[in-house]
Each structure stands twice: as structure tokens, then as C-alpha cells.
Amino acid sequence: MNAPLKKIPTDTPLLEIDSVSKAFGGVQALSDISFSLMPKTITGLIGPNGAGKTTLFNLISGIFAPDSGDIRYNSRSTRKIKSFQLVKQGIARTFQNVELFETMTVLENILVGHHAQTRSGMWGSMIRFPWVLAEEQRAREIAMTLLDFVGLSDHAHAISGDLPFGWQRLVEIARALASRPRLLLLDEPAAGLNIVETLQLGDLIRKIRDQGITVLLVEHDMSLTMEISDWIVVLDQGKKISQGTPRAVQADEAVIAAYLGTGKKDES
Amino acid sequence: MIINSQNTRNRIAYAVFLLVIVVSGYFLENLYYLQLLTFIGINTLLALALNMLMGYAGQISLGHAAFYGIGAYGTAILTVHCHFSPWLALPAAIAVAMAVAYIVGIPTLKLSGYYLGMGTLGFGMIIHILFREWSSITGGASGFIGIPPLELGPVSFASGRNYFFLVWGCVLISFIACQRIIDSRIGRALRAIHDGENAAAAVGVNTRALKLQVFVLSAAISALAGFLYAHLVFFISPGTFSFIASIRMVTMVVIGGMASVWGALLGASLLTLLPEWLHAFSEFEMVVYGLILMLVMIFLPRGLFRGLLDIYERTLKKNTH
Is residue B299, in this structure, part of any structural domain at all? Predict the structure, then answer.
């Protein structure tokens, strides 16, 4: 087991969330959230249901823009960048409810994940220039390597929608990795997994971090999150109520109060 | 590897296809059948065009006859009024169809599902009205007469046999081009859009640009079909490019089988042949026609191509047991 990092990372952050707010109609989903992600760390984003975690994910991956505040990736604002372009720049994500391309094979799903890193177009594909074929060959090799990495290379040609749920999760993670991300957003990757699968997932996420990829993890499974995260950010009702190492956060009274629903919510 | 075996299977399929075209082209004596097959070829191009958009990218168009019409009227106007060579009119007509698709596609393809259907339906109707009412140029409701036959040096395509080869040559080339797109990264991204547009965007696919590209491609193939139609029959009228024609294109794709180039061939064949076969039913023709389409959809919901393939595989399994 990895002990959580003791020191507070002091590098320049890969992602900075700067006083971000977002409302949907009358509901204030996020208010004035600020925190940073240090490179090559796993940050766990936790909080009760409705805390605004998924909203924050959608803001980071460019699906919505924040009402106020800014999100900076590599010190540059992502406000004007469309979500498909963010993927090219190195932000990849998975979805809470696994959104695979269900009629396509596992390998094809991964290859679509690699789309942003390749460039042959319609004409190139029609005429089949040598470089187009070389690019396709390389893409397939990368995809197979990733399937090996998540342990599904035997099922490369299975239709992804037919796989058991736990494997679909792994395919989705491999698909996200296929875009060669520097930042990987995982939205409840352990939801629907059994205990063994969850343990394996924890190992996988650590291996991903060890390859130099920064991970932001939304997760309800506390033991998983506390065990693998280097840093924890706690949201409750759209506000950040705590952050720190897993140990520090677990001891924070505001966090305990938010989860157990007793008393002093406004502390911190 | 599966990829290679798939490639080999594709090559064999195209080789057989080419053989069938050549053999039927040389040995069919009956001009009626040759012409019927030529019409099937033109309809196959239309079905293929719409299949790329509908079957692969999952974007419906209920106005595709407009592009078919732009190809036909484009070459008619350019060859008759402007005295262009048809071989110059062909790229020009295709370019016009592509430009129209591009301009129309930018706002329309932001819609999805029923709304996209309605948007393209409206577009198709506008173009149809244009063909009918702009009579100084298009000949109006009574049609456009006097479209010249095609010639290429010493080869005249006035004969049924040569025209048959011209049309099916175009079909074969379009099939291979589309198959290659489908098997490429672009084709994968199109199918990804079909399965989940948001997820596709989230993994880095520029969904809007790609939908526009396939819409323009589809318009180009439809316009090619329109060109071939115009120089085959020498006379065109707006009725051929009406709303009904767009619906027929959708029917060909759905009946034949979505997301398959061979489905386009089957769907186009069935919908071209059925009316010919059903003459015997005289006034009940349309009833029987509708009934057959219903039965196909009930028993082969994934279309003729997939359905027949499934039946074949099932009997194969039964025989080995």
C-alpha cells in the first residue's frame, strides 16, 4: 500500500480552479470553488450527493463554461476552448454511467479515443496514402498496448456493449488513456464494481499516476479514495469545505459533519 | 488477424461484384433488363450516399432528393443553356451540390433527431419548389427537355450497354471510396457519433465538422447520381426530386440495412424492382408494395443485408450440428 504523500506538492499546478461558480436556473451548483492539481498526483474529489462534483467535471472538460471564475490548464484559461480541443491538449475523462460506443468493438472504442492524436482525413482515407496506413498501424499498436495495460487484450474484437459492466469501465479508462492525456478525470470509476474489481481499479489508477498522468477522481467509495489519493478536496452543497491529505481530511470536523449531517456545516 | 481477414473478405466481395457487373453487362441481351439494372445502379448511388449519413453517422435527412435534383438540373442547365461539355458540367454540378450542402449543413446539423428530420425536410421542399417555379431556367412543372447524351471521344454512352457500364463503374468506385472511409479513423468517428455524440466529443472528435463533412460527401454522391440520371433519360421534371423521392431514399437505406454498403445495393434493388414486378396487381400495386416493405421490417428489422446474413449463418449452424 502506498502511504499518502506527506509533503504538500510545491510544483507549478497542472490545473487551477480559480473561484469558479456555476448555477443552473435557481440552483447554485458550485460557488466560489478554488483548488489546484499538482502534476503526477491523484486528487480525490469527494462530497455527498448533489455536492457539485460532476458539475465541476463538466466545467473542467469544457462541456459548460463557468458563470464566473476561471479554470487554467497549464497556466492557460480553458474558457474559450471546446471540449474536443481540450482532449487534444491533454484532458481526458470518463463518465459516471460509462458511455462507450456500444455497437463498436473494444479495439474500435480505444481507436476512437486516439482520434485526437491522429490526423488523416476523408481524402487521405479514400486514397490510402502510405502515411495514412502507417498512422492507422501505429494507432492499432497503441490501442493494443493500452488494452494490455488494462488487461483486456483478449477481448479486443468483442462488441463493447456485450461486455460485463466492470470490463466496460476498464475499456472506458483505456479509451481515455488513448488520447495520451496529461490530466485524467475519472467520474466514479468504482460505481457498480465488486470488491475485487475495486481493488484492481485502485492498482490501475496508481499505475496510471506512476506513468506521469495527473488524476482527478470523483468517488463515493471512501476506502478506495482515501487509500489511493495523494490529496483530497471535499465539496458540500456547491462549496469547498475542506482539503488536505486523506488523513487530515478524515479528521476534519466539517467533513464529518457534512457526511453525518450533524451540526456545524459552515465551518472551515 | 481479424483486420486482415476482413480486408481479404472485402477484396473478394468487390472482385465478385466486379465480375457480376462485367458478366451481366456483356451477356444480357434484353435492353429492358439492362436499363432496369442501370436504374438500380443510380438508386444504389443514392442509397449509398444516404447510408453514409444515416447508417453510419446517424444523421437523418428527409430532403436528400434535393441534391439528386441539383446534380440533374445542374448538368441540364449547364449543358443546354451554357453549352458546357457534360464532363465539365459534372464537376460543376457536384461542386454546387457540395456548396449547398455545406451552407445548409452549418445551421441544420446542429439539430438532431426529429428536428434534423424536419429541418432537412424543409430544405428539400424549398429546392423542389425552386425546380418547379423557376420555369425560365428549369422549364418549370412541365420539365426540362433536350439534355444531350454522353460521349467520351469515340465512345458513345447513348447505347444501353455502355451506359450500364458507366453507371456501375461509378457505383463500384463509390463503394470502394466509401468502404475505405468507413474503415478509417473518420469512419470510426462517424460511428462513434452515431452511438453517442456527447461521448464522441468528450474523447476528442470534432463532431460538428465531421457531420458537416459526411453531409457534403453524401450530397456529392447524390449529385453524381442526378447527373447520371439526367443523361440517361434526357428529360427531367421536378416530380422526380420531390419529397416522395427523399422518402424513397430513406426507405432504401432502412430496408436494405443501415451501416452497410451492400445494404444500399439490396435496398435500391428491391425498391427499383418491386414496382416492376407488381404491375400485375394493377390498382393494388401500392398496397402490395407497402405490405412487402412492412413484412421486411417486421421479420428483418435490421434490413435485408443483415437479415439475410443472419438467416444464412443460422442454416449453416443447423447443418453442422
Answer: no
Counted across chains A and B, CB pairs separated by less than 8 A come out at 100
Per 3-state DSSP, chain B is made up of helix, strand and coil in percentages (nearest 5) of 80, 0, 15
Neighboring chain A residues of B202 at a CB cutoff of 8 Å:
61, 63, 83-84, 87, 93, 95, 99
Which of B184, B205, B206, B207 should one mutate to test binding to chain A, selecting the residue with the greatest count of A CBs within 10 A? B184
Q: Is residue B249 part of a domain?
A: no
> β-strands A42-46, A214-218: how paired?
parallel
Residue B71 contacts residue B245 (beta carbons within 8 Å): no
State whether B2 and A93 contact (CB < 8 Å).
no
- Identify the DSSP state of A25: T
Q: How far is CA B265 from the centre of its chain?
A: 9
Locate B109 and state its grid cell.
Answer: 446539423
* Strand-pair category, A27-37 with A15-24: antiparallel
Chain B environment of A117 (Cβ under 8 Å): 204
Give the pTM: 0.91
Query: What tens digit of pLDDT does each residue of B82-101 get?
Result: 999 999 999 999 999 999 99
Residue among A84, A102, A114, A129 with most chain B CBs within 10 A, to mutate: A84
Residues in B closer than 8 angstroms to A115, CB to CB, are 185, 188-189, 192, 203-205
In a domain, B60, yes or no: yes
pLDDT tens, B163-217?
Answer: 999 999 999 999 999 999 999 999 999 999 999 999 999 999 999 999 999 999 9
Phi, psi dihedral angles at A220 (to 5 degrees): -90, -20
Q: Please tell me the distance from the alpha carbon of residue A116 to that of residue B207, in angstroms, as a whole number.
A: 12
In 3-state terms, what secondary structure has residue B133? helix
ipTM of the complex, rounded to two decimals: 0.87
Q: Say which DSSP state A153 is in.
A: G
Q: Which domain holds residue B48?
A: 2-241
Number of domains comprising chain B: 1
Strand partners, A243: A233
Q: With contact defined as beta carbons under 8 Å apart, do B40 and B270 qualify?
A: no
In a domain, B49, yes or no: yes
Residue B25 CA to residue B34 CA, distance in Å, equals 7
Domains of chain A, CATH where assigned: 15-90+181-260 (3.40.50.300)
